[in-house]
Design goal:
Layout (H helix, E strand, L loop, with lengths): L2 E4 L3 E7 L14 E7 L1 H11 L4 E8 L2 H12 L3 E7 L4 E7 L5 E6 L11 H9 L2 E4 L5 H13 L3 E5 L10 H4 L2 E5 H8 L7 H9 L4 E5 L4 E5 L6 E4 L11 H16 L4 H19 L11 H10 L1
Parallel strand pairs: 1-4, 1-8, 2-6, 4-5, 8-9, 9-10, 10-11
Antiparallel strand pairs: 2-3, 6-7, 11-12, 12-13
Bound molecules: adenosine-5'-triphosphate.
Adenosine-5'-triphosphate (ATP) binds next to β12, α8 and α9.
Pfam families: PfkB
InterPro entries: Carboh/pur_kinase_PfkB_CS (IPR002173), PfkB_dom (IPR011611), Ribo/fructo_kinase (IPR002139), Ribokinase (IPR011877), Ribokinase-like (IPR029056)
Cofactor: Mg(2+)
């Protein structure tokens, strides 16, 4: 059993400032720290901490940031399949002011060069039980990975985030689509704030399962032809929701991989596991540091 994540990795450079600088202004930071980030990286770490055997296909620069991301991924137990590219490792520069308002600039860097899968990468996809994808790497590559998975027996979990215009056929080929409410509305072509059950009906109409994450309210799981199932969120004191969505997706993939079962009931079980993992993550600061281990999720579920 194994999970293959194909996606982005960034180094997040976080500056604490009194206020976000206006155009032309220079401000002194109160503090600075750097963290591993990027949806692919976060989801790979979440799946690994939640007990899955994880391979991660990612493009990094030949630079110190790339070395650091590779080292941290390996330390998390991930079998890293990194391409080193002639572009800097992706970065996100984040200013956070005293009111926790933020301003972010992302440079995709090497992530934009994750094009044309190699034969070894296609073999890794075909060997995996679950393939996890997001939309921070070139969409043609995402589509190629989905086609490769569909040619074999690999199950595809597509986290269609951030919102993007998808190549034709991509959505239809994903076995499990995972989106938050904003992404669901954009994909369904309905106004933001539309009822989540209507959104789910449109997303499952393509003939495959979809999950809409609902923040503190949990997640709504839909399978074509069956009534939607609400997996309620856990009531916790939320300290920092950064990375909640990525923790959910990685934990979901680990749970699907572990059960190996494709029934609607096992999808609901996996969503319940992921909801518990994400609830633990929001109680702690940071994206990667907040991701729980399998033992923590099992202990939390035993008590809630
Ligand atoms: P983010 O962008 O903050 O990483 P997202 O918008 O992709 O998240 P959300 O729907 O906000 O996704 O959150 C994902 C999951 O995290 C939810 O389905 C839920 O299980 C859990 N979660 C998020 N916020 C809370 C909260 N305040 N309390 C408990 N669980 C939460």
């Amino acid at each position: 059993m194994s999970v293959l994540v194909l996606g982005s990795a960034n180094l997040d450079l976080v500056y604490d400032v009194d206020r976000i600088p206006a155009p032309g202004e220079t401000v002194l930071a109160r503090g600075f720290a750097s963290f591993p980030g990027g949806k692919g990286n976060n989801q790979a770490i979440a799946a690994a901490r939640c007990g899955a055997d994880v391979r991660f296909v990612v493009a990094l620069g030949r630079d110190a940031s790339g070395d650091r991301l590779a080292e941290e991924a390996r330390r998390a137990g991930i079998d890293l399949r990194d391409r080193r590219c002639d572009a800097p490792t992706g970065t996100a520069v984040i200013y956070v002011d005293r009111g926790a308002e933020n301003s972010i600039v992302v440079d995709s860097g090497a992530n934009a060069l994750l094009t044309d899968l190699t034969a070894a990468e296609r073999d890794d996809i075909a060997d995996a039980d679950v393939l996890v994808l997001q939309l921070e790497t070139p969409l043609d590559t995402v589509a190629e990975a989905v086609r490769t998975a569909r040619a074999g027996a690999t199950r595809v979990v597509l986290n269609a985030a951030p919102s993007a215009d998808l190549p034709p056929g991509l959505l239809g080929d994903a076995d499990v689509l995972v989106v938050n409410e904003h992404e669901a509305a954009a994909l369904a072509g309905l106004p933001a704030g539309a009822d989540e059950r209507s959104l789910l009906a449109v997303l499952t109409d393509r003939g495959a399962a979809a999950i809409i994450t609902l923040g503190a309210a949990g997640a709504l799981v839909g399978v074509p032809g069956a009534a939607p199932v609400l997996v309620p969120g856990h009531r916790v004191e939320a300290v920092d929701t950064t990375g909640a969505g990525d923790t959910f997706v990685g934990a979901l993939a680990a749970a699907l991989d572990r059960s190996g079962d494709r029934t609607p009931a096992s999808l609901v079980d996996a969503a319940a596991f992921a909801t518990a993992a994400a609830a633990i993550a929001v109680r702690r600061k940071g994206a990667v540091p907040s991701i729980p281990t399998l033992e923590e999720v099992l202990d939390f579920r035993g008590r809630h």
